[in-house]
């Protein structure tokens, strides 16, 4: 058995630093950071509500939200502002928040399960599978009437293929799973390239536009599906955070501590993949969120996943909402959000490399 002292020692000096448990009392500093992040998120939501090509004053926004949420005489509401805020902006804002949470927490799970600081929700072929499904739906609508459903099914299918290819003698080694994910992603990427090659110009533009990512068509129906799944997977992951900490130590240590690494890895990957695949099918490919936000959370909260998971969820929601607000307000023609997240992601990775260096990546 590993003693608490040894466990703490390995936790504090783990070379990969992907969410290993650090015993100790809850730090008031972390509580303050959580409150601060939540406050920033509320401010970002209010800013996103009033920002846009059509101006809505804060007073009108509060009046509309109060009437819609608490009940009131809707005949008094300004019609155009109400339609823009309630039917267009608010669903989009909420989808950005919950999608950011899903990508960030999924990235945290993948980095801990694979003990790989460069893992993200797309490591097992989710993005490539979803892109292939979306391309099928766009090019063959008679056979695949729902682009989002086809993208979701193909995203899950790519992960299932990765798992199946990596499974040997009843076990799925983490390294083999990552390699099989790369193989499956390459396969689906080739299929997407083939479809783009034979696609007419109009469909080619639509496929390319989808792959750049965006929340243009967010609706309350999308939220009715996305929000419960994201909240359920987030709650379950947070409740099992200590198991994720143990998995970060390695399979041998996990078994020594009484944790079945294969079973829990499958559970965590399933939950992360489900939420990430659903969000990708709704928004298209949005890079960097699942890679950056877990590292940002560790910089603020340390390596304990019981704090990293909610921290990365808040950071992801804030980052995604900020990028989406910029994407739709910087220019008259909306910029795909994937471009904005990529521009923001590159400097962050450079900063992480220069400030953390070997402590994070070796």
Question: How much helical structure, as a percent, in the residues?
Answer: over 70%
CATH superfamily: ABC transporter involved in vitamin B12 uptake, BtuC
Question: Measured on Cα atoms, how large is the radius of gyration?
Answer: 21 Å
Tell me, rounded to a whole number, the average pLDDT: 88
Shape: globular
The name of the CATH architecture is Orthogonal Bundle
Secondary structure tally, helices: 16
CATH class: Mainly Alpha
Q: How many structural domains can be distinguished in the coordinates?
A: 1
Strand content: under 5%
SS-based structural class? Answer: mainly alpha
Low-confidence stretches: 1-25
Largest sheet: none
Total DSSP E strands: 0
CATH topology heading: ABC transporter involved in vitamin B12 uptake, BtuC
Task: Explain what you see.
With 362 residues, the protein is an all-alpha fold. It has a single domain, classed as ABC transporter involved in vitamin B12 uptake, BtuC, CATH 1.10.3470. The protein is built from 16 helices and no strands. It has helices at residues 4-13, 28-50, 58-70, 79-114, 126-139, 147-166, 174-198, 201-211, 220-239, 241-247, 251-256, 261-283, 289-301, 305-329, 337-355, 358-361. The two termini are 27 Å apart.
Keywords for this entry:
362 residues; mainly alpha; ABC transporter involved in vitamin B12 uptake, BtuC; 74% helix; disordered N terminus; transport; transmembrane helix
């Amino acid at each position: 058995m590993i003693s608490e002292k040894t466990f703490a020692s390995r936790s504090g000096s783990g070379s990969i630093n992907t969410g290993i448990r650090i015993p100790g009392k809850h730090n008031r500093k972390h509580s303050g950071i959580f409150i601060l992040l939540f406050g920033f998120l509320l401010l970002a939501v209010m800013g996103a509500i009033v920002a846009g090509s059509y101006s809505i004053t804060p007073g009108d926004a509060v009046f509309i939200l109060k009437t819609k949420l608490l009940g009131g005489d809707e005949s008094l509401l300004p019609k155009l502002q109400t339609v823009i805020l309630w039917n267009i902006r608010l669903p989009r804002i909420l989808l950005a928040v919950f999608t950011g949470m899903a990508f960030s927490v999924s990235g945290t799970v993948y980095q801990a399960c694979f003990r790989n600081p460069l893992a993200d929700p797309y490591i097992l072929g989710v993005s490539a599978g979803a892109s292939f499904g979306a391309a099928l739906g766009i090019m063959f609508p008679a056979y695949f009437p729902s682009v989002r459903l086809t993208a979701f099914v193909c995203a899950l299918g790519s992960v299932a293929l990765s798992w199946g290819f990596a499974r040997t003698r009843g076990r799925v080694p983490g390294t083999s799973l990552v390699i099989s994910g790369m193989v499956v992603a390459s396969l689906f990427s080739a299929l997407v390239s083939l479809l783009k090659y034979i696609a007419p110009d109009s469909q080619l533009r639509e496929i390319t536009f989808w792959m750049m990512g965006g929340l243009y068509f967010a609706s309350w129906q999308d939220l009715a599906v996305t929000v419960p799944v994201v909240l359920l997977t987030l709650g379950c992951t947070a409740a099992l955070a200590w198991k994720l900490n143990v998995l970060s130590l390695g399979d041998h240590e996990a078994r020594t501590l009484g944790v079945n690494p294969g079973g829990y890895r499958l559970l965590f990957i399933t939950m992360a993949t489900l939420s990430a695949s659903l969000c990708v099918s709704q928004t298209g490919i949005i890079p960097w969120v699942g890679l950056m936000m877990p590292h940002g959370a560790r910089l603020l909260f340390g390596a304990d996943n019981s704090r990293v998971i909610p921290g990365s969820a808040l950071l992801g929601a804030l980052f995604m909402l900020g990028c989406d607000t910029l994407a739709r307000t910087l220019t008259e023609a909306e910029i795909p959000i994937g471009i904005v997240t990529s521009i923001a992601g590159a400097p962050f990775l450079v900063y992480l490399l220069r400030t953390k260096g070997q402590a994070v990546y070796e």
